[in-house]
Each structure stands twice: as C-alpha cells, then as structure tokens.
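Hey, resending since the last one bounced:
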Amino acid sequence: MLDYFDDDLDLVFENTKNLWLDSENKTIFLTGGTGFFGIWLLMSFIFINRKLKLKAKIIVLTRDVNKFLDKNKWIKEYNEITFLEGDVLNFDFIEDDIDYIIHAATEASVKLNDEQPLVMFETVVNGTKRVLEFAELKKVKSFLLTSSGAVYGKQPSDIENISENFIGAPIPSDAASMYGEGKRMAELLCAAHYKLFDLPVKIARCYAFLGPFLELNSHFAAGNFIKNFLNENDIIIEGDGTPYRSYMYPADLAVWLWTILFKGENNSPYNVGSDRSITISDLATLISKQDSLNHIKVIVKTKPSNNPPLRYVPNIDKAVQGLNLGVYTSLETSLAKTIFFNKNILNLSNK
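The structure tokens again:
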C-alpha cells in the first residue's frame, strides 16, 4: 500500500525530515489513529521511520483492533505500529514510556452531533481530559490536539479568510454547536495543563480536507460529490451552492501536523487548511469535469438568495510565516488523486 503513495509520502518526508532528529527510539501515542487523519499519520510515520532508521514506534488507541486491521490488512506488515484497545474516555494508563502524544480522536460528525450531542460533548471534552492526564503523567515532550475551525462559530461573510486571533464562538443556544463548543473546551483544557503543569501543548485548528481514505458516505460535500461521480450519477446540490469552502490534501495535512507537533509554539493555535476558497457549486463542476464524456451534470436544487454567502476558509499566514509551511498540492490534483484512488486502488488496501 505504501508503494502507491511514494510521491505523497516523499512530500511529507522532504518537508519534515529535519524535525525528526530527537525521535530516534521514541514512542508516539496516537488517538484517532484509525480515522482519516490517523491513516495518513501512520503511513507517513512508517515511511519516515524506516527511511531515517529511527527505530521509533507508535501506539494506537482504538476501540476495536481487529475491525481496523480487517479493513487495513497492510498495517500488519509494520511492527512499529502497535495497539492499545480501549475507549478514549477510560483507556488504561499503560506503563510504557511515551514521548509524544497526538490526540486526533473525535473527527467531525454531523450525524453524531445532531443525534447525540451529549455523547459528542463527552467524547470531545472528557476524552481530551483523559488524554491530557495521561500526557501529564508521562511528561511528554509535546502534545498535539487536533481542534477545528468550528471553534470560531459562524464565519462573518465579510471576512474571506479567518485568522487565529478572531474572537468568535458557536451559538450556545443551538445544540448543533456542541462539536464546536466541545473543541473550544478541549483547547481550554490544554491551556490549563500548559499553565498548571507546564505541559507543552500544541493546537491545530483543522478545516476541510480532500484525498484518499476520505469517507465518501459522510456529511462532507466533496466526498458526496465524488461518490456521485464514481457511481456515474449527476451531482445534486441540495442548497444553492454559494457557500465557500477550501480543501487541503492529506499529505499536506501530515506535513503540517508533524511540524506543529515538533516545532509549533506552545499553547498557540494554528489554522490548518488551504486558503484557496471555492464555492460548493464550482467544486461540483470541477468534479464533474473529470468525466471526459460530459455525462455527469451538476444540479442545484435551490435558487440563490440575496444573503451573503457562508464561508469556512482559514487564514494560514501564521503557519506559513512562523513555521515555513505551505499548501503543496493543488485542489485539481487532490481531486484527481482522490477519484483515482477510490476507483482503482481502495479495495487493494483491504487485501
């Protein structure tokens, strides 16, 4: 499987190779390692670990090891990846030495947020509290929380790219704000552990991403559109198609997360994503154009209103200027790679 991603993983290596010097024989503890973020962190870690002969290892917290390995059999080849079976809310504090922690559990889920908001809040907040306590016990060199742009609440329509110093928040009277408020509380818990215990916490406020292993059956518009495309169906936009989004390729994401873990400023959040905005309608059109026969049409069900378009696009100047990061993969390339992977490669990862 890794051979297929050589170009992507080499991109991660070339942009992070100078950050791994202190990682020799070290151990990383990863929550959320079986999700979209986790797969890319695992692949890039394996690639770099072996290329630099670091003899490092990752321990992945997961509720069901067998389920994950049945779906990703290729990971069994790599003995530097081991597993701790348990829930983020109450996992056992193992005796192993832990040098770094990446807390990437609880990806955005509209379904969970809508149907079980209290479960969402408990998982985000109490899960983070549990992992922070583990990090404090282990005196880790660095702790990375994958937070979200949802912490800003609704982005004002007159701000094209929202920066880390924006003082905004989700609407507390709306239960749908539970995810964003949960991530705000998770960041606050990190700040408290930094102040009280001098824990070196790093925070990545993640936006939207597009690439191989993205779930196509979730609430992500890009994934849904690609699923329509692969099924040779017209792309249906239920809204008016005017909201703006941006998408980062996951190899770029891996570069950013590793860099923030090893080099980021303590308790100083970084936006993580692309600053190139595109409307949902234009994204659907871009995907439909991957069909050389022009069979696939884009159908917008709702007429545009006179309201300012919604936006969810980060300003990334802080990471670009402070950490020398960049957006390395174009949206067009991201789309092409995602479509090809799902059409031709995905099933091979399960063998």
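DSSP finds eleven helices and twelve strands in the chain.

Sorry for the duplicate.
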